[in-house]
Design a protein that fits this description.
The protein has 224 residues and is of the alpha/beta class. It is built from 10 helices and 5 strands. The protein has helices at 5-21, 25-31, 49-52, 75-87, 102-107, 116-129, 131-135, 140-161, 163-170, 211-223; strands at residues 37-42, 60-65, 92-98, 176-182, 189-196. The chain has a 5-stranded mixed beta sheet with strand order 2-1-3-4-5. Strand 4 and strand 5 form a beta hairpin. The longest helix is centred in the last third of the chain and has 22 residues, at 140-161.
């Protein structure tokens, strides 16, 4: 008997249900991938990207890791980001955290968990920056949820600080980076009112003058 046979049966039923509604769906899906969205989210099994926003396979490109962190030395994340922007030409990047995130909760404690402690250092840094505000809250769950929100905001900025995103803006490519958070308790998404669409919205220390921008400045100087 095949192990996990129930999952293969679920797959068969799912594929058949899709083909009944859209007979050509999988043929068209196999021919191209042209999503407008990149979702950077948490690996938590309770946070499925497509289902949350009601999109079908092929409509959203997805990168997930523990606590939806964007680190500038993470070649996996950067490779996804570059492919999504340079090849797929996505127009929107959504960094999506969720309330009650186990990774965020672990980052607020001093318990040794192993290799992941090094990953959670990124969130501990955010906690340290906002510790007075977070620790002033008496309820633990509310403290965790506030750090979940602050983590999303920080990761939105980290996305925008990359040369990949800033080069796209320099080319005139339309690209918006959003910060959202999801509630597992009720299935609702919350917009954290963080949306960055141009480098002028960033702290000037993080703005990068691309080679393209340098060439434009040089040509302007020559014309003068």
């Amino acid at each position: 008997m095949k192990l996990l046979g129930n999952l293969f049966e679920n797959n068969r039923l799912w594929a058949e249900s899709i083909k009944k509604i859209h007979p050509d769906f999988f043929r068209k899906l196999s021919e191209q991938q042209a999503p407008e969205y990149l979702w950077i989210g948490c690996s938590d099994s309770r946070v499925p990207a497509n289902e949350i926003v009601g999109l079908m396979p092929g409509e959203i490109f997805v990168h997930r890791n523990v606590a939806n962190v964007v680190v500038h030395t993470d070649m996996n994340c950067l490779s996804v980001l570059q492919y999504a922007i340079d090849v797929l030409k996505v127009k929107h990047i959504m960094v999506v955290g969720h309330y009650g995130c186990g990774g965020v909760r672990a980052a607020m404690r001093n318990q040794a968990l192993g290799l992941i402690d090094n990953w959670l250092r990124n969130i501990k840094d955010i906690y340290r920056q906002h510790r007075d505000k977070i620790d002033a809250i008496q309820d633990e769950e509310q403290r965790v949820n506030l750090l979940c929100e602050l983590n999303v905001v920080e990761q939105v900025n980290n996305v925008c600080h990359t040369t990949i995103v800033q080069d796209a803006w320099a080319r005139g490519q339309s690209l918006a980076v959003h910060g959202w958070i999801y509630s597992i308790r009720n299935g609702g998404l919350k917009d954290l009112n963080v949306c960055i669409t141009r480098p002028e919205q960033l702290d000037d220390i993080y703005r990068i003058e691309s080679e393209l921008q340098g060439e434009e400045v040089s040509r302007a100087d020559q014309q003068d």
